[in-house]
Amino acid sequence: MKKNYTFALVVIAALFFVFGFITWSNSQLIPYLKIACELTDTESYLVATAFFAAYFVMGIPSSYVLKLTGFKKGMSLGLLVMAGGALLFVPAANTRNFPLFLTGLFIIGSGLALLQTASNPYATVLGPIESAARRISIMGICNKIAGISAVYILGSIALSDVDALKARLPLLSDTDRAAELNALAQRVVQPYEILALSLALLAGIIWMIRLPEIVEEEAHPEDSEFTAGKTSVLQFPHLVLGAFAIFFYVGVEVISYDTFAGFGEALGFTLEQSKSFATYTGYCLLAGYVFGIAAIPRFISQQYALFLLTLLSIILVLVSMFTGGYVAVVAFALLGFSNSVVWPAIWPLAINHLGRFTKTGSALLIMGIVGGAVLPPLYGEFARAIGSKQLAYSLMIPCYLFILYFAFSGYKLGLKPRKD
């Protein structure tokens, strides 16, 4: 790896920290807004829908923005958009307006779509493709440390003493109930004001510093034999399958931490206990990223690691479904370990040999993140329909089976050099 790439990767690591903090904050916003805005389970999962739907809507536009601005300025712009979305939480909290909260989350997600479209290929091309999963795993550590921090920080602010509040609300008059809920809604105002300011400052810093601009054809000129005659990213079957793999992966990962608090309540734990269960997933993700850094590609290829750990995920989901108590909690948390290699492995396998199509291909993969918008509310409806949050996790099995297919053969579909 070139010497000047070290600083660039440090900057990307800081951005992955931002991704993690904001994304994992949703795991606390879901139970928080369910109480503050008096929502059903399915309605509360619209937090994930609004946030991740932005990736689908803004994926391709993000690629065009990056072609105009380049990676660095595009990152700054994404951060400023996110700051605007965070500020929208202030009037949303003041009025306890759930649609306004969702609008703020969509705007934050739109900024993140631009950031992710830039930063993931950046981490991928700053070095050999064979070790890309390793570099993205390092980014993932920053991401998950931030995520764990978000659960503790936002959880301690927004969900403090919520069990007592939930028990008290039915006994109050309408006026007193509204006053209690208004006070609860105000808890997120200051955190999101601070978040908006921090994002704006980081945008200014990235705008002013020097970063290498990555040009796809220059980064991997050998890819020209794979891209000759191609006019669209849809002509790369391995990329399209990779986008679907990202769709299913993000969906199951979001389910694994955003529904963990509700799963804990369904198992008989209090919300005060289960609100921090998502941190267990975070710790297991960290362990998995350390494994990825140490083992890939030195001892195991990123493709084979993806295959084996996806098999493990299926086993862990089954254990979570058919056991109880801390056994189910531990099995569900261990999904963090088995999930850890999925994103770092899918990404380089999917954009391999895209050459000049790398930015647009990256945008297509970013659109796959919409799985986080679709699958959590689908899980909520499925759980309501069958009357069991625990057995509803069977929804995750076919998702992992598709990822298993991608790891086995989908990643190489259509990857044959053109022979002139």
From TrEMBL:
Protein location:
Cell inner membrane
Q: Which domain of life is it from?
A: Bacteria
Q: Could you tell me which InterPro entries the record lists for this protein?
A: Glc/Gal_transptr_bac (IPR005964), MFS (IPR011701), MFS_dom (IPR020846), MFS_trans_sf (IPR036259), MFS_TsgA-like (IPR050375)
Pfam families to which the protein is assigned, alphabetical? MFS_1
Q: Which CDD domains match?
A: MFS_FucP_like
Q: Give the principal location in a single coarse category.
A: membrane
Keyword Heme carried by entry: no
Keywords for this protein = Cell membrane, Membrane, Transmembrane, Transmembrane helix
Q: Which residues cross the membrane?
A: 7-25, 45-66, 75-92, 98-115, 136-159, 194-212, 233-257, 277-297, 304-322, 328-350, 362-379, 391-411
- Topology in the membrane? Multi-pass membrane protein
UniProt key word Iron-sulfur: no
Show where the Major facilitator superfamily (MFS) profile domain sits. Answer: 8-412
Q: Which family does it belong to?
A: Belongs to the major facilitator superfamily. FHS transporter (TC 2.A.1.7) family.
Function statement: Intake of glucose and galactose.
Q: What is this protein called?
A: Sugar MFS transporter
Q: In which organism is this protein found? A: Rurimicrobium arvi
